[in-house]
Amino acid sequence: MVSEHITGAYDDELRDLVGRIAEMGGLAEGLVSDAVTALAKFDIAKAQDVIFRDHKLDEMQRQIEERAISVIARRQPVAKDLREIIAALRVSADLERVGDLAKNIAKRVIAIQDQFHTKRLAFGVEHISEITLEQLKAVLDAYTAQDLEAARAVRNRDDEIDAMYTSLFRELLTYMMEDPRNITVCTHLLFCAKNIERIGDHATNIAENIHFMITGEQLEEDRPKHDESSYIPASYNTDE
Q1: Dihedral (C-alpha) 104, 110, 113, 118: value to the nearest 10 degrees?
Q2: Are 62 and 133 in contact (CB under 8 A)?
Q3: What residue spans define the domains of the chain?
Q4: Rounded alpha-carbon distances, angstroms, from residue 91 to 18, 88, 158, 206
Q5: Cα–Cα distance measured from residue 92 to residue 60, given in angstroms and rounded to the nearest whole number
Q6: Would you tell me which CATH number, out of the four given (1.20.58.220, 1.10.10.10, 1.10.3720.10, 3.40.50.10490), belongs to the domain 2-231?
Q7: 4: Cβ–Cβ under 8 A, 6 or more apart, which residues?
């Protein structure tokens, strides 16, 4: 009876970590969605709310770290139990960074509030954010369900976000060359787009940690990467 009681309490602690990650993931998704909505609708109040709410995500990560360390110290887990705790620590760190990136987008919205005169410039950022949010939701569902195939699907789709970012990079550069008045706004939008691309990378990190948690193996092959923005040359009109 004592052994069953201890085992049951231990299982409850592991489930509690998974539940806290799910809660943290929901908040991270909400922050990203609201930050992009603030950008699309030029909503300064929503942007400020995203910045304010990010501290909650930081606090949740701290609590998860404390609980995970406590479980390791008291239970001395091995094998898959230990991998689950390590994965929880890694995933919480990725989600905390997702929150930071969402906050950075919100700060950009506030920074360009007096210069953002056309929503057309932000359409591309909205589109890449839709795919990224799909990735984030899918990988969090895969984590909760311990679905290896779903995690692999998220990892394999990372190149789609990279390709979209490269295309958006080119598009925003074109807007800047067409009209120098767009330079400041487009520069901020480039940072927003890069933040969203990085959120996609964190979703892929989570997918890789799911693979480790379930199989006990680290993925050795490089993930597909198609961000070619660093290879795009600057073009200047020399006809004048």
Answers
A1: 30
A2: no
A3: 2-231
A4: 10, 5, 17, 6
A5: 8
A6: 1.20.58.220
A7: none
**How would you write the pLDDT of the chain (240 residues) with one tens digit per residue?**
445 546 788 899 999 999 999 999 999 999 999 999 999 888 999 999 999 999 999 999 999 999 999 999 999 999 999 999 999 999 999 999 999 999 999 999 999 887 766 677 888 999 999 999 999 999 999 999 999 999 999 999 999 999 999 999 999 999 999 999 889 999 999 999 999 999 999 999 999 999 999 999 988 766 655 556 655 565 544 443
Q: Quickly count helices (H) and strands (E) in the chain.
A: 7, 0
Neighbours of 117 (CB within 10 A): 12
What single-letter amino acid sits at 125? V
Alpha helices, H only, 76-182: 79-111, 123-145, 148-156, 158-178
Question: 44: which 2 tokens?
Answer: 């300064």
Kindly report the number of other CB atoms within 10 A of residue 95's CB atom: 27
